[in-house]
Amino acid sequence: MAQLIDGKKIAAMVREDVAAEVQQMQENTGSTPGLAVVIVGNDPASRTYVNNKKKYCAEVGIYSEEYALPEETTQEELLALVRKLNEKPDIDGILVQLPLPKHLDEKAVIEAIRPDKDVDAFHPSNVGRIMIGDYHFLPCTPAGIMELLYRSGIEVSGKRCVVIGRSNIVGKPMAMLLLHQNGTVTICHSKTQDLAAVCREADILVVAIGKARFVTADMVKPGAVVIDVGMDRDENGKLCGDVDFASAEPVASWITPVPGGVGPMTIAMLLKNTVTAAKLHGEQ
Ligand code: GUN
């Protein structure tokens, strides 16, 4: 029987810390951290994420502004908004919700965000800073996972870590953060041969591939820590993760549930990054 890593509880603890920092900042400087959230089009999942981001900003005392643009927004219009937010003094962090509609160039939009306001840590300059271990912001989902491990007392140093998935948002930065903590890290992807055997070597297995219940008990080393980044729907439309929880849980030592594992951490770390940005802007 694995111990459950309770992301809801740990995220609430992080939010409490952030709220205390915001209050301290207001007492010291009279200013409040500000986040701008930009959403383009009508993707229902993106709408839910954005609503949650606004809700938790309000809870911890961060000022937030939403910019909801229509599906047919042009690249130039979106870039003009980003440039305006770059110069807006009450805005410390800018988040452009991804994915963007197909006709827009995500890469160009990310590169237009001022790196000191890039609370997603997606700008190439911030990605490079993470690579060399000299950073202000960490991407929210991998940072949230490191926080889950840390607050659960799970040591990374010297452990075999396997990350399934190589996205710029999760897999690649995740591998780098585990490496920073002296893990021995392998990144797996769709071309990996004998994936199950590689996974079975993992003391810490992080799964971020977006395939419902992909990781089964036979891919989990007895006693491993299993972190599930997935937010999928099964054949009956039920919300589930990338890990087959029912079969993996008896084999693992620690495991994250879906929902209530990694998900709540992502927003908590975004709030933390927004406070970091405000500090960078001199609102100590
Ligand atoms: N879409 C899914 N996850 C994220 C995220 O962490 N940041 C942004 N901007 N968009 C996302």
Number of domains: 2
Main pleated sheet: 6 strands, parallel
Low-confidence stretches: none
Helix count, per DSSP?
10
Give the class from helix and strand content and strand pairing: alpha/beta
Spell out the helices and strands N to C. EHEHEHEHHHEHEHEEEEHEH
The small-molecule ligands in this entry are: guanine
Question: What is the fourth-level CATH superfamily of the largest domain?
Answer: NAD(P)-binding Rossmann-like Domain
Helix content: 40-55%
What does this protein look like?
- This protein is of the alpha/beta class.
- The chain is built from 10 helices and 11 strands.
- 43% of the residues are buried.
- It folds into 2 domains: 89 residues, Rossmann fold (3-Layer(aba) Sandwich), CATH 3.40.50; 124 residues, NAD(P)-binding Rossmann-like Domain (Rossmann fold), CATH 3.40.50.720.
- A 6-stranded parallel beta sheet has the order 1-11-8-7-5-6. Strands 3-2-4 form a 3-stranded parallel beta sheet, with helices on both faces. It has a two-stranded antiparallel ribbon with strand order 9-10.
- It is 42% helix and 15% strand.
- It starts with a strand and ends with a helix.
- α2 links the parallel β2 and β3.
- It is globular.
- The structure holds guanine.
- The site of guanine has 9 residues, from β4 and α6.
